[in-house]
Every structure is written in structure tokens, then in C-alpha cells.
Write a structure and sequence with these properties.
There is one protein chain. The protein is of the alpha/beta class. The protein has a single domain, classed as Aldolase class I (TIM Barrel, Alpha-Beta Barrel). The chain is built from 13 helices and 14 strands. The strands form four sheets. Strands 1-2-5-8-9-10-11-14 form an eight-stranded parallel β-barrel, surrounded by five helices. Helix 4 packs parallel to helix 13. The protein is globular and about 60 Å long. The structure holds phosphoenolpyruvate and cobalt (II) ion (CO). Phosphoenolpyruvate (PEP) binds next to loops. The site of cobalt (II) ion (CO) has 5 residues, from loops.
Length: 455
């Protein structure tokens, strides 16, 4: 990258810029100690894996692959358990098979996992019953319970988060290397929900076709599908806590540049994407492919300037533009952004995040509800944004090369709608997210079937 190469950029050069969304760590020495430990730990990923992902993303930008990017809004330390991790891989794998079937393209799987422990917050504080405390900023920083003790930022949590990232990734790599085969086969999928959909017959036909396709390939090759083709998963998280990101930013023997070795694919959040500020400065200098969240607040000029700054050499695979507009705004907001980037001739990958522009706050009144407002999203709005995204890109002659979801393989009730028709009053039943609402297993699989059908 130009900045790194010119010698102006260092993993610490962001410190001279305005920086947003960093916690007010109470003890500088404790923070320095935690960062020194993390800097001395082995990395979580390798530069070779990062380069491989960048090449695959470049292929997706050319329409040759499709990106499935998904996972929790915020991972929790408590979620670092075998069942949750397996369920997360299972839903991503099953969705990817459905999307492969629909798109006839190889699907790149990137999890929002193994490090998605820090959250940007719109409000610095939260008030309940007249008491005001600092907001929860993710398990890397503080804890979600509403007490002043829990909400105090604690740098030791950064070390705990790094360890859990390593535990998660270790288990993901072990599952990928063996014992994962059954998850390929639709006979093993939980499809009881399908009967509740008016599209039941069509869903069943698609799932049967996927199963037959796998059997056909296995018969031809004489081995199980997972042995033919390694199932890769890449990791990603929002590049938010710059002290932490910088602590794992390294040089690698016999390669040029600096690499963030805590994740394959860091992304720039919508709240920190200011051109002259610290997050953009940090991301300028690393070799990883990066995602940029594009919100209704992003103007065409902003976006073009960001692209030039973060990718001065127009490297294929370097930039993924993740638009998150909302079903009611995408038709107006997206086309001018596509035009502006197209005029630059840059090889970007366009991805739709249909979650973050469709968040609503409701106060459920059903059985278990606490009477407190909670965030939710409607399945129909998520789908409507995605469908428009496909249409808008097709009309512009650009490629929608991927989708970005907040989802879980667990049976939560955080988003409404879908085949089972969850309502606001069902939300209290199993609402576990500490931040944004996720599609549950059934809703996520149904969404993949609907997207595949659309393709
Ligand atoms: C997120 O992806 O969880 C997020 C906070 O998104 P955005 O920056 O687009 O609001
Ligand atoms: Co979120």
C-alpha cells in the first residue's frame, strides 16, 4: 500500500488522528499490559490465508464466486461453546450449499466470528429506570448486565477475547478438517419448518435437487463431498478497537507490508468511516482485504474518496463495499453510489447487508416480556432489501457478489416473520442477542432458499 510503502504509515500512525468509538479505559497501565501480552501471542491467521481470501474476493467481484458473510452481531464470551460454534458453522455451510445451487458459483464463507467482540454504539450511555450507565461495548470491553461494575471497561477482557478467538478458531479448523461431512447432506438438515411455508413444495424441490447433486458428485468421485473439496471458512470482525488491531499487526518473513493477523477480513463500520480519521488511517496500511460499510449517510464523493484512500493501486479483492440502506431507502440511495464507483473503473466487490438498515424498536407485550423496548427486524424487510439490491445491480450492469447477515444457528426469537410467522409477542421467548437481532436457524435457511430462488 502506498502509505505503508512511503514510510509515513506505521501501525501506530492512527494515534495522531481523531479517533471515535474507543472505550474510556480507566487504567492506562493495565491496557498497555494487556496489549503487550496480545502482541506477544501467536497470530490467529496467516498471511497466506489472507492472500487466498483476497484472490477469492477478486473472483467474486468479477462474478465468478459469491460471498456469504454472516454471524452474530456481537459474539459473546459465553457463546464460545462447542454447540454454538457447530451450529454457526452448520447454518453457514447449509446456506452456502443452497446459494451454490442457486448461483451455480462457488461460495466463499466468511464468519463474523473468532473476534467479533467489540461494538460501536450510537449512544455513549444507557438509561434504565432513571439510572444512567456507560453503554455495553462488547465482551472485549465490558459486560452487558446493567450495573456500574459490569459496565466499567476492563483491559483484561481484551486478553480473554483473544484467547476465545483462538479457541473458536481452533475448533472451526478441527471441524473443517474432519467430522463435518453429514452437514452437507440435506437429509440431516432440520427442515420441519418448511411445512409452514406457502412455498413448501418449491423448497422441497430445491432441497431434493441439492441432495441429488451431492450424491451424483459423490458417486462420480467415489468419496464424500467434504473429502473432495475442503470446506474453507474465513474469519472477520469489525475493525473497531484500534489498540487491539494494532497489537496484532505484523510484518511477515519474505513478504512485504503489514498484516493484521487477528482476522482475515476486517471491516470498517458505518460510524468510523471518516476519511481523515484514525480508523481509515489504520486500514490504509494493512495488506488484508477490507470491507467498507456503506450507509445512507455515505455520499458518492465520500465513497469514491474512501476507495482511493484505502486502495490507491486498485488491487483486485482489496475492497468489498457492503451497502446497508434499509428496504425503504435502497432504491434511492444505492444507484448514485454504484454510478460513482463505476466511473472510477475500480474492481470492487458489492455486497448487500440487509440487516442494519432495517432495525426497529418494539415493546413486546407477550408472556415473558419485561416491558422494555427491544430491537428487532422483519424477515419481509430483509428480503425486500435483498431483492431490490439484486435488481438495482442488474439494471446498472454491476454484480451483487455477496450477502451479509446477522444470524445464528440457534433457535432464537429475535427477528419476526419467516415461515413460522414469529410476531412481536414471540420475541421475549428466546431473545439472547445483547446487541442486534439475528435471523435464527430456520429463518436463515429460508432466506438462503429465497435468495437462491431469486438467482
Ligand atoms: C454491524 O455490522 O454490526 C454494524 C454495527 O454495522 P454498521 O457499522 O453497518 O452499522
Ligand atoms: Co449489528
Amino acid at each position: 500500500m502506498t502509505n505503508a510503502a512511503s514510510g509515513e504509515w506505521t501501525p501506530a500512525s492512527w494515534r495522531s488522528k481523531r479517533v471515535r468509538q474507543q472505550p474510556p479505559w480507566p487504567e492506562p497501565q493495565a491496557l498497555a499490559g494487556a496489549l503487550a501480552q496480545i502482541a506477544a501471542f501467536p497470530p490467529l491467521v496467516t498471511s497466506g490465508e489472507i492472500s487466498a481470501l483476497r484472490e477469492q474476493l477478486a473472483e467474486a467481484a468479477r462474478g465468478q464466486r459469491f460471498l456469504l458473510h454472516g454471524g452474530d452481531c456481537a459474539e459473546s464470551f459465553d457463546g464460545c461453546r462447542p454447540g454454538s460454534i457447530t451450529n454457526q458453522l452448520k447454518i453457514l455451510l447449509q446456506m452456502s450449499l443452497v446459494l451454490t445451487h442457486g448461483s451455480r458459483k462457488r461460495v466463499i464463507r466468511v464468519g463474523r466470528f473468532a473476534g467479533q467482540y467489540a461494538k460501536p454504539r450510537t449512544d455513549e450511555t444507557e438509561t434504565q429506570n432513571g439510572v444512567t450507565l456507560p453503554s455495553y461495548r462488547g465482551d472485549n470491553v465490558n459486560r452487558p448486565e446493567f450495573s456500574s461494575e459490569a459496565r466499567r471497561p476492563d483491559p483484561a477482557l481484551l486478553v480473554r477475547g483473544y484467547e476465545r478467538s483462538a479457541l473458536t478458531l481452533n475448533f472451526v479448523r478441527a471441524l473443517v478438517d474432519g467430522g463435518f461431512a453429514d452437514l452437507h447432506h440435506p437429509e440431516q438438515w432440520n427442515l420441519s419448518w418448511v411445512a409452514h411455508s406457502p412455498l413448501a413444495v418449491e423448497y422441497k424441490r430445491m432441497v431434493d435437487a441439492i441432495g441429488q447433486g451431492l450424491q451424483f458428485m459423490e458417486t462420480l468421485a467415489g468419496v464424500r463431498v467434504h473429502q473432495m473439496q475442503r470446506v474453507d471458512f474465513y474469519t472477520s470482525h469489525e475493525c473497531l478497537l484500534l489498540d487491539l488491531e494494532a497489537a496484532q499487526t505484523r510484518q511477515v518473513p519474505r513478504k512485504s507490508g503489514w498484516w493484521n493477523l487477528s482476522t482475515h477480513f476486517p471491516w470498517l463500520g458505518a460510524r468510523t468511516s471518516h476519511l481523515e480519521e484514525a480508523h481509515v488511517e489504520y486500514l490504509c496500511g494493512i495488506e488484508n482485504p477490507i470491507g467498507i460499510k456503506v450507509s445512507p449517510a455515505t455520499t458518492p464523493d465520500d465513497l469514491v474518496a474512501l476507495c482511493k484512500r484505502l486502495d490507491p493501486d486498485s488491487v483486485p479483492g482489496r475492497l468489498t463495499l457492503i451497502h446497508r440502506m434499509g428496504a425503504h431507502r435502497i432504491a434511492q440511495q444505492l444507484p448514485p453510489l454504484i454510478d460513482a464507483v463505476a466511473r472510477t473503473g475500480r474492481p470492487v466487490l458489492w455486497v448487500c447487508d440487509p440487516m442494519h438498515g432495517n432495525t426497529e424498536t418494539v415493546t413486546p407485550t407477550g408472556g415473558n416480556s419485561s416491558g422494555r423496548p427491544i430491537k428487532t427486524r422483519k424477515f419481509a424487510h430483509i428480503l425486500a432489501e435483498l431483492e431490490q439490491a439484486f435488481e438495482i445491480h442488474a439494471a446498472k450492469g454491476t454484480v451483487l457478489g455477496g450477502v451479509h447477515f446477522e444470524l445464528t444457528g440457534d433457535n432464537v426469537t429475535e427477528c419476526t416473520g419467516g415461515a413460522r410467522g414469529l410476531s412481536d409477542d414471540d420475541l421475549a421467548g428466546a431473545y439472547h442477542s445483547a446487541v442486534d437481532p439475528r435471523l435464527n436457524y430456520e429463518q436463515a435457511l429460508e432466506m438462503a432458499l429465497l435468495v437462491a430462488r431469486r438467482m
